[in-house]
Design goal:
Blueprint lengths: L12 E7 L7 E7 L7 E11 L1 H6 L12 E8 L12 E4 L9 E5 L3 E3 L6 H5 L2 H14 L6 E4 L5 H12 L3 E5 L3 H9 L4 E3 L9 E6 L4 H7 L2 E9 L23 E4 L9 H13 L7 E6 L3 H9 L6 E5 L2
Parallel strand pairs: 8-9, 8-11, 9-10, 11-12, 12-13, 14-15
Antiparallel strand pairs: 1-2, 3-4, 3-6, 3-15, 4-5, 5-7
Length: 319
């Protein structure tokens, strides 16, 4: 399957990954038309991009015309026509809504931040989706100083960021991972406890950050304190969850359950990206990068990420 917008007659071309709809080879490298930025967009020459597990799911049934890629770092080679954003050749991290697995991508100026020399392109590419989710998730949770947090699905990119940010803010974090190997780094980042199943977690917890779905949601709810809060921000198991109204009376009475999406926030993306970059530059945030390889290995990395064989983030670099 080749998206309609890859027509290149009379246009400058570039290499980019496009979806195929074939699970055995979900993307292929192809010649496509170089993007034409809108007035409020810059053109970025991509140096590195990261892939997210959720993107592997979308590639199973790609929409016509879609091209993957939301997390990129690179060089601005064409400034925005409206004068917004950086000018000249500037190192940036960006969060376009698609098209980032390519040599060039157009990025809105309100969805990028400058990278200082102390933050590499690989580190920068690991920040956007996972970092924005973690930062905004903790804001949604409210003050966490002295509070007990249960975090499920903790060994992915979001989990590592949440653990480091929450513990730095004074929270006690219990992280749930599949095994000890995947949880080792979380303890180094400050997790009070690392367990390998929700049933091993010793509550009660003031806050549950739940990203697994299926039976994990009801099990996590049972460990919530009275008037506590569950924030549901993912369903990595891809299994539906079922809750029983009467379960609330066995402990988490008057609890709140909130759905969370990282784009539903009052702050601009560029402001929060700049915060993530600053914390990384100051050594207060450490992107957990489980694999770095050339973008020629993208298909292999997608399979490993989907099957949870990569801890933290996976970053691809362009030669």
């Amino acid at each position: 399957m080749v998206p309609e917008d890859t027509a290149i007659e009379g246009k400058i071309t570039m290499k980019a990954f496009i979806p195929t709809g074939d699970p055995s080879e979900p993307v292929v490298l192809a010649d496509v038309a170089e993007p034409t930025p809108r007035p409020d967009e810059v053109l970025v020459k991509v140096e590195a991009f990261s892939v997210n597990r959720g993107e592997t799911f979308k590639l199973e049934k790609p929409a016509s015309g879609d091209r993957p890629g939301k997390d990129i770092a690179g060089l601005v080679v064409q400034s925005a026509a409206d004068g917004s954003g950086p000018s000249g050749v500037t190192r940036v991290v960006g969060h376009p809504m698609g098209g980032g697995w390519a040599e060039y991508v157009a990025v809105p100026t309100d969805a990028l931040a400058e990278l200082p020399d102390s933050v590499s392109a690989v580190q920068g590419a690991a920040l956007p989706l996972a970092g924005l989710t973690a930062l905004r998730l903790l804001r949604a949770a409210g003050p966490v100083l002295g509070r007990r947090i249960l975090l499920t699905g903790a060994s992915g990119g979001v989990g590592h960021f949440v653990t480091e940010l929450a513990t730095a803010a004074g929270a006690q974090v219990t992280a749930v991972t599949r095994n000890a190997e995947r949880g080792a780094r979380l303890a180094e980042l400050g997790a009070t406890d690392v367990v390998h199943h929700v049933t091993d977690a010793q509550g009660p917890y003031d806050i549950v950050l739940e990203s697994t779905g299926g039976p994990a949601l009801s099990l996590a709810l049972a460990r919530l304190a009275r008037r506590g809060t569950v924030i549901w921000f993912g369903q990595a198991s891809r299994m539906p969850a079922t809750l029983d109204f009467f379960d609330f009376f066995t402990g988490p009475e008057s609890a709140s359950i909130r759905h969370f999406h990282y784009l539903d926030a009052d702050r601009r993306l560029d402001e929060d990206l700049a915060t993530l970059v600053r914390l990384t530059a100051e050594g207060r945030l450490h992107p957990e990068i489980g694999r770095v390889t050339d973008w020629a290995d993208t298909t292999t990395v997608l399979a490993a990420l989907r099957d949870r064989r990569i801890r933290g983030k996976a970053v691809l670099t362009l030669s």
